[in-house]
Amino acid sequence: MRSVPRIAVLLCLTLGISPAHAASGWLNWRGPDQNGVSKATQQLPDTLEIGGPNHRWSHKVRGAGTPVVADGRVYAFGFYGETTDVEETLICLDVKTGQKIWEYRFRDYLSDTTYNRYAIGAPLVDAETGNVYLESTWGQLMAFSRDGKLLWEHSMMEEYGRLTFPNGRTGSLAIEGPLVITDGITANWGADGPARNRFYAFDKRTGELAWFCTPGIEPLDSTFATPVFGNLGDQRVMYAGTGCGNIVCINVRTGETVWRFRLSQSGVNADVLLAGPGKLIGIHGKENVDATHHGRLVALKIPTEYPAGPKPLVLTKEAEIWRNDEFVSFSSSPLLVNGRVYSTIATGSLLCADANTGKLIWSEKLAPDQLHASPAYADGKFYVPMHNGSVHVLKDAGDKAQIISVNKMDSLCLGAPSFYGDSVFIFTRESLHCFGPKASAPLIPPAVAVAAESVSTAPITQIQVVPAEFALSPGQSQKFTVWGLDATGRRVKPVTAEVSWSKFVPPTALVKSEVDGEMKGDSVVTTAAAKISAGQFQAKWNNLTAVTRGRIVAGLGLKEGFEASVLNQKNEAGETVGFPPLPWLGARVKWHAIEKDGSKVITNRLDNILFQRTMNFVGRSDMRNYTVEADVMTDGTRRVMSSVGLVNQRYLIAMVANSRILEVSSNHERVKESVPFDAQPNVWYRLKTRVDGDGKGGGWVRAKLWEKSKPEPEKWTIEVRQEKLHQQGSPGVFAFSPQSLKRVFIDNLSLAAHE
Q1: Which residues make Cβ contacts (< 8 Å) with residue 348, sequence separation at least 6?
Q2: pLDDT at residue 728 above 70?
């Protein structure tokens, strides 16, 4: 992770000073109130014709999300190219001309993203600092200054075990106070090893993790819903859909899960609506929990005071005020305007329902179908993009819709409109378009005064360790800040210097493990000989305690033969098994250690279809210039085998046994090259990989694969040239067992600096 100096940051926070440029405008994908409704009174265009009188400019960048606008600048998350040439981008444009001010391009890695179906999210601008935040389709979380300087970044995949999904399912980030919040399906370590929809809150200035939480149950899908903020008594909370079909309420400042309600069997992808005190409206388009049909619009009676006692509360069907099963909306987020709920549904209609009763008032067919694009409301008009590339401008005429115009764009629409002054912005798969009533004189609204983040003066009633989670290679250290929080979770002051530290093993922990490092002052310090390990440290201030958890992960010189694995459990097949090293992200729910051919090895588990394809990282995301190798083998027959491989610097090198190839890939559309290799079942092979840069941004991905019983060949089995090489990345292991039929085996993993 790259970050800004801590001393300057803490000084600004303590004094209540904003060290950057404040911003105002349409700062997130759903606007100022997070509901897709603009309160601006400027006259907006009735027609959105490309090349017409209201067309101000277009910028050629492919997109599927929503642009955001702040202080005369448009920020858009898009991409360029096709297949092997695809590059994602965060681009900053002048709102008056559409001319590029700056751009930051990046390429995905180890993902299965396809760029032709789903929305790919939106940037987020912080009102206090003017900084810009973005999460890529595969989970690269990035923070930028207003002028495009990368401030910090996290690889959510390599650092927290974020799973990737086809179609680039990434929503917009959310920001509240000092925190920027994201979520995803992650398989972490320890108690958080099983795949769950987790939320992560990072300090928006430093990028350090403040808290994370697991509010739901085992997911059946991903989600790209964005949290919506509100107050619950004197606490600040957020509401969001999850991949396990729940709507959840979470304390924004501490990460405590307050309550959850099961709305769907699968993911809830649309944003929720707060419809007044004690009332929330949610929608989904997947399997219902109590019926065979798909989709439902529901109004819930939710708590109005922060509940005491054990949490989370589980709201039941009795919390429903009303339901309407005519609303089948997969990821299109609804609107609440003047006591009515509006939503596009899968069949291509815009529906209007009474927010008090849920009763359908009218329905207007707009397109053959609709899955993802969301409507927005401004200047008394609805702007409704559709999957077929049409954008409808209409009004609510009481008992029906009044169509003002139907506008054909240059390609399909998957995101949502945004507004700024007298401008409307529409993102298509081909271009970003700006429309306004006067092509030569766009109206830029006056800046809104933004108060610097205040510091609480209330008594400290709880403490919080930041970062809440860390990973170190042997010989590295990690500094902590311990914040004193008031009863509402607001930061009062750092109390780091007054804290005592101790190693902590939770009484409920299944594995009693400690980090092989020591606390010295405000930092945990490791030696070059530190062992691969994981555990927690507890901070104590007066009578208050808080913990941080961390890992010592693989460094150069690793030799892992799994002989330390204790085989004391039985798997689903009755075999005596153990587990891989605890610090490996998600490994204990994906792999078992077993006895095989007179040695302990690891084999992928076949008892969870979610993990028939699994990738596990064993080091830090900033590692580079290393050689990783291992013994590999696939079970099966000549007709049915599985794939096994290694990850090196964000490239996957795999023996794809069924296809009889050795393959190098990073994204299956962009990087995928192979050479023939006649792999046999139940034969041990040695796989050796390395990535070499050329000093000019490019380089080669190289691998050798040979039968273990034979000498190492002199030549590389495959060499793949990359003009734009991934410059860093964690080593890892990989398995793919189609239909969970045949296992793979890995042994004698080693990690070394280039020879």
Answers
A1: 365, 366, 367, 368, 369, 370, 386, 387
A2: yes
